Amino acid sequence: MTTNTSTEQGERLLGQIRTTENVNQADFFDLGILTFTDEVRAMCEQNSCGRYGRAWNCPPVCGSVEELEAVCKHFANGILVNTVKHVADSFDWEGMMDGGRMLCDLLLDFDGYAKDAGLTDYRIFGGGGCYGCKTCSYPDIPCRHPEKLFTPIEACGINVMQTAKDAGFKYINGQNTVTFFGMILFN
User: Fold this and answer.
1) For the chain, domain boundaries
2) Pairing, β 151-152 against β 77-86
3) What pTM, to 2 d.p., does this model score?
């Protein structure tokens, strides 16, 4: 943490996050563990989630790896958070998507918590695509809810599994579970 004010605000934010239902782990982490690679971003291009080139918060429209790395490096502090969704089995796509929506809802809550804590210079990154609208308006009209957009961590070229390990977080949380990560970066 860089200043007493940001320390106090960050502690207040982390305290609120930790007491939120469906949060599995949340803690400060060293932003120096973040690595940005085109190889991770290339996984987005494989479009396994179906949102590549189809959503305002996803590649390629969300910015290049280099642009998003610069955004992340603007910040001095970070909180990493995960949530675990139990699914019927490894083929339960709807259960997995419910987990993504759950994380998105939590990130919206965290946005409010950050404002309540007095943070003004922050950015929230999520896991996967946006769940704000049933059908994304991309590319026909501007986003209907830009305040609900969180760039996926993976779109930044960040390897979430390695980041989780380096931050002391569990990435795999048991059979028939899926783990989603978000991060709040702030000054």
Assistant:
1) 4-186
2) unpaired
3) 0.92
